[in-house]
Amino acid sequence: MPQPLRVLHVYAGNLYGGVERMLATLASARVDGLEQSFALSFDGRLADELRRIGARVELLGPVRVSLPWTALRARSRLARVIRASRPDVVVCHSTWAHGIFAAVARGRGVPLVFWLHDVVRGGTWADRLARRTPPDLAICTSRFAQAALGRLWPHVPAEVVYPPVPPPTVESSARREVRAELDTSIDDVVFLMASRFDPAKGHRVLLNALASMRETERWTCWIAGGASGPREAAHLAGVRALAEASGIAGRVRFLGERADVPRLVAAADVLCQPNLSPDAFGIAFVEGMYAGLPVVTSALGGALEAVDPTTGILVAPGRVDALAEARRELASDPGRRAELGAAGPARARALCDPHRQAERMRQVLATVAGQG
Hints:
Rossmann fold, 13 strands, 44% helix, alpha/beta, seven-stranded parallel sheet
């Protein structure tokens, strides 16, 4: 029987968002000929979830760039992990992880892959550090992200692998239960936005569009997501104040960071995220499509690869009037919502079926490791 491809994923692990959900999904995928393990700097929610799945997790120790010895210690631990586990390929996720750890894999003679999840600008300290160690291959989360790879390494070969996203597993009773929990009428049209409180996600555009609908239709807006750091906390406070000043605070629920976003999606009617700057892809859009929700977002970045006219409405970035018109259309026309929602699950599977995408990853990595 052929030797399985042993893949070691290296990442920070101190936050939880789209990349972390993707890694957990990869760990859950059962693909013949693929063995995966994970080396994380920080213990926390991602490490706990990987352990529950049954994945092998190695902790390298927290790294603070301002404390150089923490990086040296973590690199030494990664070298020991590589020596003991003998992976066929090391995959670094994010420029932070690549900048800190890529040279260790290179020094051990292990094929090195960088997975680009974001749109890189090339000017951050993490970008500059990562640039020192070109990988053998880059995997990009979208064609849009791939177009920015040259800001790091102009001549590194790249492949696009869309993130694996699992279909939701939510009880049919979730719609009624969640709405009761959130003091929302079963008859309201619920617009859901689920993202961290980064100003670039478009929270203010969303509320300004909703304010123009203040007297029309029955609607409620749920905003899920936490604020990390002073900048996001200040943005959250400003968005709350805007809801009050616009006279719609009674219709907007600020839910904070949630571990049950699939339940929220199952209980909502429209997924909306009016980005002001491009995302590399948009896992939230795929999750909404799986659940049969029409998606409203800005026509830029990776969203153009995820959402098409059969599954949602793409509006010009920052255009409150265009967003308000899209929301008004969906709030007043259940047939239109049903039409867009019906096409969502098939498109979500075609783009991001977990087993298919994990198998594609295996094939790409096997080529780098000399097993293709």
